[in-house]
Amino acid sequence: MASSSSYNSPCAACKFLRRKCMPGCIFAPYFPPEEPQKFANVHKIFGASNVTKLLNELLPHQREDAVNSLAYEAEARVRDPVYGCVGAISFLQRQVQRLQKELDAANADLLRFSFPDIPPAAASLSVPPGLASLHQQVSQRQFTASGFYHHRQSPTATFSFPYSLPWTDSSSEDISDGRGVGGGGHL
């Protein structure tokens, strides 16, 4: 957090607003002259006056996190004016779901190859209640260097939601497919 006045150059905020950067400038520690686009985005989305009020209301040790959050949200809003950060979060959640399905498929393959006596339908992506204990036993086994199984205790319990989450979407389309975050296409 170097003050821009020590470099005898105005901070990005004062330069953008075309004003003199005073030694006690509230923007100087957070908007260095090397990052003019950071302030330009924050100003475009939130306004310099609102950011000044916000920073003045915060304790000094909270300001850096606040500016980083504002800059992140502003950049996301510039890239996606409708959804901002929510669009990026939704995209990442769908990616996590897709990867979880791939992991489930790999675990089902592992279960099928470890226990060839189990019919293929039983080793599908969702483990039937009758095979849950068998699936848990397999997931707690691990090969040793000699190729033999040994049992390891699970350090944490797994948790699954008993209901479908509202943001889940089985498709893997991009967030710009016109359907929006909720999938309905209407706000």
How is this fold's topology laid out?
Blueprint: H1 12-17, H2 36-46, H3 48-57, H4 60-79, H5 85-114, H6 132-139, E1 141-143, E2 149-151
Fold and architecture overview:
This is LOB domain-containing protein. InterPro entries: LOB. The protein has 6 helices and 2 strands; from the N terminus they run ααααααββ. It has helices at 12-17, 36-46, 48-57, 60-79, 85-114, 132-139, and strands at residues 141-143, 149-151. The radius of gyration is 26 Å and the shape is elongated. It folds into 2 domains: 4-79, no CATH class; 86-187, no CATH class. It is mainly α and 187 residues long. A hairpin with a 5-residue loop joins strand 1 and strand 2 (149-151). Helix 2 (36-46) packs across helix 3 (48-57) and helix 2 crosses helix 4 (60-79). Helices cover 45% and strands 3% of the residues. It starts with 11 loop residues before the first helix and ends in a 36-residue tail after the last strand. The model is unreliable at 1-6, 142-163, 165-169 and 171-187 (pLDDT under 50). A two-stranded antiparallel sheet has the order 1-2.
